[in-house]
Specification:
The protein is of the alpha/beta class. Helices cover about 30% and strands about 25% of the residues. It contains eleven helices and 13 strands. The strands form three sheets. A seven-stranded mixed beta sheet has the order 3-2-1-4-7-6-8, with helices on both faces. Strands 10-11-12-13 form a four-stranded antiparallel beta sheet, with no helix packed on it. Strand 11 and strand 12 form a beta hairpin. The N terminus and C terminus are likely disordered.
C-alpha cells in the first residue's frame, strides 16, 4: 500500500471493518479516503475478502497495512489485530495519537480535521465522538471512534487489555467487557477523557436526522431505517457520499422512510360556521417530528409546519 503526505500531528487509525457479503463498498472507500488525509491507516477486516475487493484499497493513500481474515471477534478483534501488527512492527511510538475506528457508521459528513484538532487540544488523554447517557449504561465513549495519546496506546495496561480480546458468545458481552471497560480502565489508570458530544449515544440510533442537525459527523448504519426524509442527507453531506449511502441502503434492503409511509394525520381541531368546517388542524407525530397541516373548508391547504421531536431514550449498541 502507498504512504503519502501526513498531517503535522501524526495519527494512526486502526480501522475495523465488516461486510456480510465480503465486499468493500463505496461507503467504506469514502470513509477510508477521508481518514487518509489525516494520518496513516492500518486496515483489518473481519471477512475473507477476495483479492478483487481488496484491490480497491490501492487507490487510497496512507494505508500502510491491510488484512482481511474472518475471525468472529467483532470490531474489538479487528482492533486487536491492527494494534498487534503496529506493535510488532514498532510503529506505535511514531504517532502522537492512535485512533480505533470502525465502519458501523456512514460518513464523515464533513471534514474531520478540525474536529480531531479540537479534541486533541483539550488536554485529555482519551477522546471520542459520542458518549452514552449514564442513566442508560455506565458512562463510556462509544467504541466506533476513539483516540488515545501515544502514552496510553503504548502503556502496559492497554496492551494487556487489547491483546486479551477474545470471541464472545453474546454481543452485549462485548459492550460491557470491552467497550465500557475500556473507558473505565482509562480512569482507573489515571487518564482523562472527553468527547465531542456527551450523553448523545441513543440519539444516533433513534433520531439520525437530529444527530446530523446538531453536528455529529456520522450516521449509524443501524439507524438508516429511522432516517425520515432521506433527501435531507443532501443538506449535511456531499452528493458523492449521499449516493454511496443510498446504494448501501438498497444493497441491504433498508427502507429509509418517506413521508407517505409515516403515521397518518389525525384531526386535532376544527372550527365550523353554520355546520360547515371553516378551519381544521391535523397533526402527525412520530419519533422524528410533529407536523401540523391547516386547511380552510377541509379542502384548501394553507399551512404546513413541523417541529423536531425529542429522541427516544433507548440505547442499542454498535
Amino acid at each position: 500500500m502507498t504512504s503519502n503526505n501526513a498531517p503535522s500531528t501524526k495519527r494512526l487509525f486502526i480501522f475495523a471493518a465488516y461486510d456480510k457479503a465480503d465486499l468493500i463498498d463505496d461507503t467504506l472507500l469514502y470513509y477510508l479516503t477521508a481518514l487518509s488525509h489525516l494520518g496513516h491507516i492500518v486496515f483489518t477486516m473481519d471477512n475473507n475478502t477476495p483479492e478483487s475487493e481488496m484491490a480497491k484499497l490501492k487507490s487510497i493513500p496512507n494505508i500502510i497495512h491491510a488484512n482481511a481474515t474472518r475471525h468472529g471477534e467483532y470490531d474489538f478483534g479487528s482492533y486487536k489485530r491492527g494494534y498487534k501488527w503496529a506493535k510488532d512492527n514498532n510503529i506505535l511510538g511514531q504517532y502522537d495519537w492512535i485512533y480505533m475506528v470502525n465502519d458501523s457508521v456512514l460518513g464523515p459528513l464533513y471534514d474531520l480535521g478540525p474536529i480531531l484538532t479540537e479534541l486533541e487540544s483539550r488536554g485529555t488523554d482519551y477522546v471520542g465522538m459520542v458518549s452514552n447517557d449514564p442513566q442508560l449504561l455506565p458512562t463510556h465513549i462509544q467504541s466506533w471512534f476513539v483516540g488515545m495519546r501515544q502514552a496510553v496506546a503504548t502503556s502496559k495496561f492497554f496492551d494487556d487489555f487489547i491483546t486479551q480480546v477474545a470471541h464472545q458468545t453474546d454481543k452485549q458481552f462485548i459492550v460491557y467487557k470491552y467497550e465500557i471497560r475500556m473507558s473505565q480502565l482509562m480512569v482507573d489508570n489515571g487518564y482523562t477523557y472527553s468527547v465531542l458530544y456527551e450523553n448523545h449515544g441513543a440519539l444516533l440510533y433513534t433520531n439520525p436526522h437530529q444527530a446530523m442537525k446538531i453536528g455529529i459527523p456520522f450516521v449509524k448504519k443501524m439507524a438508516l431505517g429511522h432516517l425520515y426524509e432521506p433527501q435531507s442527507l443532501y443538506t449535511f453531506a456531499p452528493a458523492k457520499l449521499v449516493s454511496a449511502i443510498m446504494m448501501y441502503a438498497a444493497r441491504h434492503n433498508i427502507s429509509m422512510v418517506q413521508e407517505a409511509q409515516l403515521a397518518p394525520y389525525v384531526k386535532r381541531f376544527r372550527m365550523t360556521i353554520l355546520g360547515i368546517p371553516f378551519f381544521t388542524i391535523y397533526t402527525q407525530t412520530d419519533m422524528a417530528r410533529t407536523a401540523y397541516k391547516m386547511y380552510l373548508f377541509d379542502k384548501v391547504p394553507i399551512l404546513k409546519i413541523w417541529f423536531q421531536s425529542n429522541p427516544l431514550t433507548s440505547s442499542p449498541q454498535e
